[in-house]
Amino acid sequence: MRMMKFYLLSCLLLVFPLALCDDRHVYIVYLGEHSGDKTHQEIEDTHHSYLFSVKSTKEESRASLLYSYKNSINGFAALLTADEAAVLSKMDDVVSAFRSHPHQYSVDTTRSWNFLGLHEGLGDGRKLGMGRRSGILHKAKYGKDVIVGLLDLGIWPESHSFHDEGLGPVPEKWKGICEVGDSFDSSHCNRKIIGARYYLKGYEASFGALNRSNDFRSPRDHDGHGSHTSSTVGGRSVKNVAAPGGFAHGTASGGAPLVRLAMYKVCWPVGNGTLAEGNTCDQSDMLAAIDDAIGDGVDVISISIGPRETIPFRDDGIAIGALHATKRNIVVSCSAGNQGPTPSTVRNSSPWIITVGASGTDREFSAPVELGNNITIKGQTLTTHKLKNHLYSLVYAGDVVEPHVPKNSTAGQCLPGSLSPKKMKGKIVLCFRGEGTRIGKGKEVKRAGGAGMVLGNSALLNNLVLDAHVLPATAVTADDATRIFNYIKSSKKPTAKLSPAGTAISSNPAPVMAEFSSRGPNSNYPNILKPDITAPGVNILAAWSEASTESNFGTKPLKYNFESGTSMACPHVAAIAALIKAVHPTWSSAAVRSAIITTATKKTNLGTPITTESGEVANAFSYGAGHLRPVHAYDPGLVYDASYTDYLRLLCDNGDGQVDPNFKCPKVPISSSDLNYPSLSISNITSSVTVTRTVTNVGGSGKTLYYSIVENPEGFVVKIHPRILYFSQVGEKKRFTITVKNEGKSKTGEYSFGSYSWLDGIHVARSPIVVSPA
Asked: Where are the beta strands (DSSP E) in 204-339?
């Protein structure tokens, strides 16, 4: 799992522009929704007038303006001092004025879609001569003419995943552009990549001019991440794809292979000189991208980016942009973050976003360790290097360090220069994760003459993220690493051998929640369950940038690469949202999200409960409603709909004020527990709480009867009234109440998990329940 890093650099390092050294920073001044009666020029003039009220001259006010948001979002980004921003924040019609902090990103496919049951035979459909018809794919025409916009690090247009052979004309509703720049011209857009833009005004205001040796000043992807997520959403079917070494061989395809793609490049490298030390995404740039995506005519937006910390709505560019997208019935899918398994780390937690956690698939890259005591330990790797088929001496890294290396907690982590060639030459070494890179540990073992490496996870890093090491190596879980360590310490002559790696399909049980996937509860909206759902996000193979010098396989150019993170899970859900939009073009954003959430499962492929990588039974704070099930999502039977106005009322109740000039906060705002959300979360229940929900019949021919069943959370009793709902036609709505009673058996602050479901003999619409006592 790669994480995007954000580094604060001092003005003394002479890398910041002068504007920031005089205490000016990028601020977003948010004015809410446009009234709809002004031209773009009139909007920009209004924004200039706000700036002129705090600047000395008109010239200064115009020079300070970075973005004027004109399509849907009313606001602007400008270089301001804290005092100037404070003055603006107090003006009439200004919802908020907040610092535009860069974001850290939690930063298929030959297997994940098969595992999800989507592709019977991967292909673009019979008209293109490939693949069999398959449920939702056939009904959705493989996503034909649905437009998905991605906020990411760009796209590599030459990838076979993005060819446009057989595609029809660009949809007439498309209003976007193909922005030219470094190594990117209009010819790089086609009938597949129909639009591409890039945004770096906010980035350059903070970090100075882009170092073009680190990235392209254009929509072209230098990193790989953007191409990876784009091909996961809508990559064309490409046969005989495999990672180096032949791993994961098969046909690569996105979930919706005929959707049109639009790239909005918003993330850029940070670092000194020619060395990029990570990437960052500025809020002002992202808000401009979302505003353009709305104006361009996208149907779905996929954002594999998240803030490093919890941000309130008034200061959250992604949340603000997504709210305006939702008004236009654009589905916004966002990654949950990679800060798990720590509680309350979930990001992108607004109720108008579908927030996606990460879990594994049933594919493994098996490379077991056979110990000298005839015990075989399960391991995984992507290395192509092999050892001879015999036992080698096995040592613990902490026992074979150089004399000058302290015997402390890092001694066994195979850090650069730590291992003694005299003590470990020709041996297999057990190293532990912690400080340093995984690849770097293998390089140190090879430098010191080791024959091979077993890389053990620490208790805090228990997700198996796989690498192509520079020598024979395999990765094992924390528990298995402890077993190997104990064997070394208890044996006079410990030995082991490493089996060559291979791809194994249908490993059971699956999925397993990724340890890194961020967990609930939701810090911003405690009574809205987040994440909403989990999808494949571990060791996903997808398209890559051939300019990238960073991959699981070293520095050589790759066409396809493995990546892990909630960044990889997010586009899986965006793809299914696109297919649902193709089948049900009139459905609201909330209805699409509801269909995905209520058809999820909390069971594995063996029918057992989904677990975490540490072996514990997972819960709704890990996976929301459960694991994505595409073949059910397009026909959920019932949906929980919600409007833009409902979200505005919720913001009033949450203290975020009025964001639309055409809407006035009611005297009695909606509470978050009463929002018509497809899950139920209520905290601090003293005795009992009753909330209301409304379902819309979207299944069958119309006439149908649904009955409810309840799985009570421990220590609580849940009652549904009425227990039976009768519908006479499609589109009919029925209202019901849910009463949750605290039986006084749970500890204060201790969460309990359950569910309630509506069934008609064909459909099952299940909603998770999360409650806690006062």
From this structure: 238-241, 250-252, 260-265, 267-269, 279-282, 300-303, 331-335
